[in-house]
User: What shape does this take?
Amino acid sequence: MQENGSGQSIRVIATGTKVFDAAPVRGTFRAIETPDDVLSLMDTSAEGVIALVRDAGATFLAPIYHELAGVICTGGTPRSHIGIVSREFQVPCVMAAVFAHGEPADGTEVEVDCSGELGTVRG
Assistant: This one.
């Protein structure tokens, strides 16, 4: 367990394969299940969102990719669609993420860290 800058404890909640080397980013966790979820974020903002997707071939994130802080995908490899687009947009991404104790609730502040050997999600 570590502390973030405001003295709160953070722990590793998921690990997977990083798409590229990137410094840690923090943002608000949001599971994106359908195109309607993307439309909702287009109406408000995806700025600072760390999106969770399950399908590595998903294309529906395209309209908001430039606003995302990070992406977590529960499947795929860095060569999957999500991995390729993340690399192109330079959005830190963890592929084939496995959550140790379940996924956090939407709105939880999390960190995606792609600076080590593995991609790590902390919360």
